[in-house]
Write a structure and sequence with these properties.
Elements lengths: L8 E4 L6 E3 L3 E5 L2 E4 L2 H9 L3 H16 L5 H12 L3 H15 E3 L1 H12 L3 E6 L6 H4 L2 H4 L4 E4 H4 L6 H11 L6 E5 L2 H9 L3 E4 L3 H10 L5
Parallel strand pairs: 1-6, 1-8, 6-7, 8-9
Antiparallel strand pairs: 2-5, 3-4
Length: 217
């Protein structure tokens, strides 16, 4: 019987995994739930409707997330559309992300313990230029073997290229890696190229799943 490849690397998503939503889930339409959070916070602070807010950030949000415009361009366009000074725009979004997310310190500790045991650890995350400064905390990120962020590398999940890039930077094969994400649509493409996956629900469930894959927790 062919032996399964040993796990050598664990790859963590940020939003919903290493950074946890503080806000409760709300129903958007029948059977569809999501966290009431950053976008609602900003629109309420500015006294505009959510639709008006989304119209204001629309294409620039996507372009920023995919690294098709720079941080400077992102802030300039968003500030102009929201009729705010650029400095105030940055401050508003920083506060919005800080208020709506909390750092999953336990999972970070587990990640760093895994590194001490000889595993490689990585961050793989979709971020735009106004969320990155809050979510990609330097004091944590510098301890990872690889940090792959969509706005920096010009590609986002669920494009297979971003998973393959992460594997390349870690110098591991797909079957030697585990990818942890809280969204099924990001899990599926990773699994399709051979990466072990865990759909994150909470820390306890995640650690049990890692152990089941043979990771020394």
């Amino acid at each position: 019987m062919k032996q399964k490849p040993k796990i050598k690397a664990i790859i963590f998503d940020i939003g919903g995994v290493l950074e946890i939503n503080k806000t409760p889930l709300v129903q958007r339409k029948k059977g569809v739930f999501r966290h009431k959070g950053v976008h609602e916070y900003v629109s309420q602070k500015l006294g505009i409707s959510l639709d008006q807010y989304f119209d204001s950030i629309d294409t620039y949000y996507t372009k920023s997330m995919e690294g098709r415009i720079s941080e400077t361009q992102t802030i300039k366009h968003i500030a102009n559309n929201l009729k705010l000074p650029e400095r105030k725009t940055k401050k508003l979004f920083k506060k919005a992300y800080s208020k709506n997310f909390q750092t999953n310190k336990q999972l970070y500790r587990e990640a760093f313990n895994l590194k001490k045991k000889g595993y490689k650890i990585a961050i793989l995350s979709d971020q735009w230029h106004l969320s990155k400064p809050v979510h990609i905390k330097t004091r944590y990120a510098k301890k990872f073997n690889a940090v792959v962020v969509s706005c920096d590398v010009g590609v986002r999940k669920p494009n297979p290229k971003i998973y393959k890039l992460t594997l390349k930077r870690l110098k591991v094969r797909p079957k030697e890696a585990v990818f942890i994400d809280n969204q099924l649509w990001n899990i599926k493409p990773a699994k399709k190229i051979g990466i072990n996956t865990i759909l994150f629900k909470n820390n306890e469930q995640c650690l049990k799943a890692l152990k089941k894959l043979g990771v020394d927790i």
